[in-house]
Amino acid sequence: MNILEIIDDFKKECACGKQHETAVKDVLIESGAVCRVGDILCKNNFSNNILLVADENTLKASNGIIESLGGFNVEYKIYEDLRVATMKEVDEIEKLIANKDVSVLSVGTGSLNDVCRLASATQNKKLCIFATAPSMDGFASYSAPIVNRGFKFSYPAKSPDVIIADTKILANAPKELKSAGFGDMIAKYVGLVDWQISALLTGEYYCEKIAKLTRDAVDELIKMADKVCLNDEYVAGKIFEALLKTGIGISFAQNSRPASGSEHVIAHLIECVELRDGIIPNFHGDDVGVCTLEMLKYYNFLAENEYIDTQNENVNWNDVYSFYNEMADEVRKLNFPENVIDDVDKDELKNKWGEIRKIIHSVPSYSECEAAMKKAGCKITVEDIGKDQKLFDDCVKYSPYMRKRLTLLRLRDMIKY
Predict the structure, then answer these.
(1) In this structure, are strands 103-107 and 49-55 parallel, antiparallel, or unpaired?
(2) Which of 56, 139, 194, 318 has a CA between 20 and 30 Å from the CA of residue 208?
């Protein structure tokens, strides 16, 4: 079943009771797709005026895309190397498209897409993403993680109308980007565990069909771990399809639950701290992959306990705010007056521990994921991603308070074993 068939299938009535929608109207994944970009934009009624947003690396990788836009009036916004999406770049794109008959073409992955997703949403413009590497899963997402005032927020944004990928370009992407994409995908196992546990304890919305779409995509990809770094168009295309399926799942759920959990929040906090200290963060998937292994190891450890006792959460908020420093006000807003733990009954947590253990054991173990990541050339350890161990440990400790989202890591202080 290809991506468009999946989208059509999800439009049918779902057992979760929600009507699943996505803004994605067209998807093209094939060799030589770069030469068809202009035709695809015409087919999908994009404006004759195009703002092409890229950086020097992604534009160079997309040789032929400018020629394919011969029938359009094209304006360019080319960054030197956009590694971090901030509100500054969003403002820049908004000014270029506000009050104009123009559509947006984002050439690249990650931060470039995030900036264009948010700007296109605020200005109500059509958006096409031309992917240059299979390095992350957010191509179809309705949210955009943007750094604003030193804090990384997840903003409601625009899912693209069109997604295009040239398998030849994907296959030629740097190995480190491919490995980062694999690390980002393995993270879905933790995200799915956290989502199910929250639904079990709080009644949070959960859709088994969306979860299965994500799970099947990760399971399919993990079988190709030893082929991730090959310069092979077929493999590159399959990896991109797997990444796109999880992104479509985010789109259907209208939030990032199907694709991220405690591991992503840790990685986002590390990034915020590094930006504060003037350090350019790693590729997103590198940090996320290591954080995923850390969480799988911890979750597997918890699941070794057949029974647990529970207690009320007791947080030293002064300690939390001290760590967050200038970000403390944002953290305070996320935890007061309402707190995600307010919906968790400690007795129910204790009584449902057997079910929680089954959820943890329903995904591959720490050792299985570590072995797959090694085959895919991923970074494995805190040392591999160049982090200070104390900083990493502190980010694990304080990350649960950075999002208004229940995870098993957030339940840590309630669990006695």
Answers:
(1) parallel
(2) 139
Is residue 142 exposed (0-12), middle (13-18) or buried (19+ Cβ within 10 Å)? buried
Nearest Cα to 299, choosing from 386, 364, 395, 226? 364
Kind of pairing between the strands at 73-79 and 162-166? unpaired
Task: Report the predicted TM-score, pTM, of the whole model to 2 decimal places.
Answer: 0.92
Using a CB cutoff of 8 Å and minimum separation of 24, what contacts does 10-19 make? 10/209, 10/248, 10/252, 14/207, 14/209, 15/208, 15/209, 16/205, 16/206, 16/207, 16/208, 16/209, 16/210, 18/205, 18/207
- CA 363 – CA 369 distance, rounded (Å): 10
For residue 157, the one-letter residue type is A
Q: What is the pLDDT of residue 280?
A: 84
Q: CATH for 3-173, among 3.40.190.10, 3.40.50.1970, 3.30.70.890, 1.10.10.10?
A: 3.40.50.1970
Other Cβ atoms within 10 Å of 276 Cβ, number: 14
Query: Given this structure, which CATH class describes domain 181-206+257-416?
Result: mainly alpha
- Contact between 379 and 293 (Cβ < 8 Å): no
Of 156, 154, 160, 152, residue with least CA distance to 125:
160
Q: Specify whether the backbone of 108 is left (phi greater than 0), alpha (psi in -120 to 50) or beta.
A: left
The pLDDT, as a whole number, for residue 137 is: 81
**pLDDT (0 to 100) of residue 254:** 85
- For the chain, residues with pLDDT lower than 70 are 1
CB 109 within 8 A of CB 169: no
Domain edges within the chain? 3-173, 181-206+257-416
